[in-house]
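Weekly sync, protein design subgroup
Attendees: M.S., D.O., the rotation student, P.L. (late)

Item 1: inverse folding check
M.S. brought a backbone from last month's batch and wanted to see whether the design step gives back something sensible before we order anything. D.O. pointed out we never logged the input encoding, so this time it goes straight into the notes. Structure tokens as presented (300 positions):
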């Protein structure tokens, strides 16, 4: 929202600059017209005076009447004025161009900083994942979920909050990996998650799913994902419970509210799990609750 407000402010400033420029152009054209009117009156007056007084000089320099010289000089000055109005100052001017360039540079710097932050965040996540997998003799089975203070994760097979940052966090962590889920979780989504290998666990032997691998047990799902250094279990409640004992890591978004629902995340036993990361976020226009990104690693 702050960014949008800044954009609105920039537009208003640009509009003001254009109005001021238009006003200056009108004033300069009025002055040019006034100059033209005075010049015509002056030409008539001087030529008339010259005819009446018949003033001439014998010098070659003043071979022509004095009024002709004055009229020629005046016309030259008027031509300079005309050129200045319609050519030199036709555009917004150097000051306006400099201000516009400064605004563009500032916007580019902000965009570059945002991209740099995102790249550093992704690099940190990848480095942490690689370090953890190097210290493990097998792949890192990770549970990823968003749960309220009372461990509720859903109701009627639907999301129960709007957390834009959590969705981005989920996408960043799971991108390029196997994501293991129950049938109901898969059916709650509009389609298979892109840029990930979707694995569905179901007891239905004839179940078909587009762009997904279907298996009938957690063991088979992990076997399918054995070449992935960090497969993710993404729900639902029963799949989380089955996975707690064999999981190595939990990526939990703890939503700081208590809410009603019909699906829950298993209680985390702190004698078996160690909190290694806690990053708190405050609610805003894109996130309706305060929440924290928590990471738990299993204690060996």
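Designed sequence read out in the meeting:
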């Amino acid at each position: 929202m702050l960014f949008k407000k800044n954009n609105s402010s920039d537009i208003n400033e640009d509009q003001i600059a254009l109005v001021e420029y238009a006003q200056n152009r009108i004033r300069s054209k009025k002055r040019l017209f006034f100059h033209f009117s005075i010049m015509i009156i002056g030409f008539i007056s001087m030529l008339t005076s010259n005819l009446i007084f018949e003033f001439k000089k014998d010098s070659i320099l003043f071979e022509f009447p004095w009024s002709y010289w004055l009229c020629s000089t005046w016309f030259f000055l008027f031509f300079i004025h005309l050129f200045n109005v319609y050519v030199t100052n036709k555009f917004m001017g150097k000051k306006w161009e400099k201000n516009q360039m400064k605004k563009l540079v500032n916007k580019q710097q902000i965009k570059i900083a945002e991209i740099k932050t995102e790249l550093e965040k992704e690099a940190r996540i990848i480095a942490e994942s690689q370090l953890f997998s190097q210290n493990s003799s097998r792949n890192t089975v990770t549970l990823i979920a968003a749960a309220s203070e009372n461990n509720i994760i859903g109701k009627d097979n639907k999301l129960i909050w709007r957390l834009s940052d959590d969705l981005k966090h989920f996408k960043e962590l799971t991108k390029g990996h196997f994501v293991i889920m129950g049938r109901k979780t898969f059916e709650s989504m509009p389609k298979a998650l892109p840029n990930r290998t979707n694995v569905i666990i179901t007891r239905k032997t004839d179940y078909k799913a587009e762009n997904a691998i279907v298996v009938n047990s957690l063991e088979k799902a992990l076997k399918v994902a054995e070449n992935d250094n960090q497969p993710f279990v993404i729900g639902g409640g029963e799949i989380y419970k089955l996975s707690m004992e064999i999981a190595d890591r939990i990526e939990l978004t703890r939503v700081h509210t208590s809410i009603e629902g019909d699906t829950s995340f298993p209680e985390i036993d702190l004698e078996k799990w160690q909190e290694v990361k806690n990053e708190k976020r405050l609610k805003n226009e894109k996130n309706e609750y305060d929440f924290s990104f928590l990471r738990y690693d299993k204690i060996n």
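Discussion: The helical segments are 2-53, 66-88, 94-134, 164-174, 183-187, 218-224, 237-243. The two ends are 45 Å apart (CA to CA).
Action: P.L. to compare against the previous round before Friday.
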